[in-house]
Design goal:
- This protein is an alpha+beta fold.
- It has helices spanning 12-30, 66-73; strands at 2-3, 35-38, 52-57, 63-65, 77-78.
- The chain has 2 helices and 5 strands.
């Protein structure tokens, strides 16, 4: 449900945003254990990219979803 800048973008601004988003993603992933669940209903998008849900459990039992975090931090836009 999110769209992010492309690393191989021709536009310098988009390429810079993609680099910043990739660094933020690495930071999120490095914070601790997470789960990746591929989608059974729609395993790939129209470009053949794998669609998945990435999340971790918080100490209070709630979920910290990567897509929600990327949207809040400005590294992605809603799809």
């Amino acid at each position: 449900g999110i769209d992010t800048a492309e690393m191989a973008a021709r536009c310098p601004a988009e390429a810079a945003q993609a680099e910043a988003s990739a660094l933020a993603l690495q930071g999120w992933l490095s914070r601790g254990p997470f789960r990746i669940t591929t989608r059974l209903d729609e395993p790939t998008d129209r470009y053949g990219r794998t669609l998945a849900i990435v999340k971790r459990d918080r100490p209070d039992g709630s979920e910290d979803r990567l897509a929600d975090w990327m949207l809040r931090e400005g590294g992605a836009r809603g799809y």
